[in-house]
Model the fold of this input.
Amino acid sequence: MEPALLKQVKALIANNDLKEALDLLISNGYMEGQERHNTILLLRSRLTMLQEQELAGMLDFDEVAQQKAKIAHALLQICEEKPEVEVPAPPPVRERVIPKGDPPIPKPPASFRRYFLVGTIAILSVFVLVFLVRKLGKKADRPAQTEVQRLPDGSNDSKESGRTDPQILDFPRVNTQVNLGDMRYTIKGASVEKYSGGTGKLTFTLNFDYECRTNLGKCSREKIRILADGKEGVLVGTQNTPEYVASGRNGSDQLRFIVDAGAKLYSIEIKKDGTGPWRRNFYILK
Done:
């Protein structure tokens, strides 16, 4: 890390401005490498959760200070990464040298070795024979079973693969309300998974409710976008897409976007003509 950036980050940590220190690292591109990227995002999410618990009165001052000290310590370790210490090779094993004066170790006679080998083979043969007899007996007593056919839709493959989907961090919480003009939007959740149509892409799904709160006329739906490093994601699916909503009416919708999996910062944006957009940033842990 550059000395000027390191000095600035340490100053923020000393002032207990941990959120600003993390945002400074993210904005300066100090997230190269998947392990460092995930570590910084986890620290950012942990700090956000700690602040919410502090506001809700779930933690006292000492507990909050202790948790923040741990986050600050982890952040300093990231900033001052040192090269791994080379582990020295183990010392060579020295062969035992038998002094000339010692008597040689006696070896068993050849006839004894031959009898021992024949006896071992005979004992192993008996064990193998008993095992085969028991196994054949169990197969004879077991009823015939119908072979399970593999499903053509690939459902077996999905269970065997054990694939884990990415996780969303710092996304607006469920039931977060956004008021733009006469329309009210209530976020009901979001999910993300790997795009099945190719690599390097993610499928982001957003669920929300909407309500027209005007008493006269009708309301127009705002445009909702998902951005990946400022680049707009492609809308590929929706459940309910009326351009206008009648007075006092409400409904639910689900939007699906295809976004870039290699982005560092993601955003949700709701924009209305003539009004500044509502935007919140979040992260995706791959």
Q: What stands out?
A: The longest strand covers residues 183-194. Helices lie at 3-14, 18-27, 34-55, 61-79, 110-141, 155-161.
